[in-house]
Description:
With 380 residues, this protein is mostly beta strands. 5% of the residues lie in helices and 42% in strands. The protein contains three helices and 38 strands. The strands form five sheets. The protein has an eleven-stranded parallel β-sheet, with helices on one face. A hairpin with a 2-residue loop joins strand 15 (160-162) and strand 16 (165-167). The longest helix has 11 residues, at 3-13. The termini are far apart.
Amino acid sequence: MNDTVINSLLFYGGADTTIFLCPGAVINLSGPIVYTAARQVITTKGLPTGDLRATLVVTGGGQSCAVYGTCPACNSIALTNVQVNGNRPALGWIQNGQGLIEMGGSNTGQVVDSIHSYEPRGWTALHLIEGTSNSCSGASVKNSQFGPSGHGPSGTAQFRMVKARRDIGTYAPGQWADGISLACKQSTVSGNTIIDATDGAIVVFGAPGSKITGNNIIASTRQLLGGINAVDFGPFYGDYANTVVSGNTITASGAMIKVGLALGPLTWSNLNSTGYRNSGGSFTNNMFTTAGLGYFGYGISVSGYTGGTVTGNKFTAASFGGVTGAACQNSPAVPFGAAYVNQYTTSGMTLQSSIVNAGAFCFMICNGPGPITKTGITSS
């Protein structure tokens, strides 16, 4: 079995084709598996959820994508109970590479369930594309594992962990990668575990009406820029209406997370324009904690945002620290800590009382690894 055989079965089988892979099978791919019609399913026979899931392995020299499901007729396709190995440690990073799994597009009702996607050569382990005129809707990503994904940010740019110690790395900038990249509106991302993503563990590109709940994000051996990000203005022009981010747990366990929950374009950049403000959505009842050598730079950052709700988020035995980098533009520097808002670029929001006004700040990911300055912080 290989990608040629699987693609032939999908092409000639048409709509409603289900391909059952053998438990424990390792299937080498020289190119992506491409869905071709509605309600096609790729899964492992017996629906195992552990190492017995069949594993799809990227082997092509210039290949970054293993599974591609964005055809115009790909409504309600499903990828379940498989593992997808992007093989970056063996084959290397591909600059401007695709996501390891590319789904969504101008479709509805696609399903990703009980998979493990890891070591993408491109920018994300799973990308749900918005589609033409942002028409993608109703995708479901549940009960899955994502990561490791990418090489972690070092210093104030990029670094890696060596034997659980902070260590300057040698990776070129930009090799970080997301766990889940969601740009499909009215979707559900729930019950997933993301371990050692390095850009954003879950990045929400607006995706109005989506529910991102009950996910577990862990930075263990690779540093993470952002736990959950609502920083991108595109492709929905800053619209996060009715997007719900709730009940997720973000843990810095052995590695640094620069920002746990990042809201607004100015958290991620220095582009200060009233034409680039995100708006709407609710970010509630998420948990932030640390373990071992792990710590946050900042727990919650809100900068460049209008409307929306940030309440009920809790910090339990959380540590904070780091150093400010040469690219940081905040003067005075925002002290490392739990929750901050830029009151000059944020308006009309309902914010929990523990969020501190910190002046006009931006680019909160300019910080890097350094000494832990606060420990055991518990607040809500």
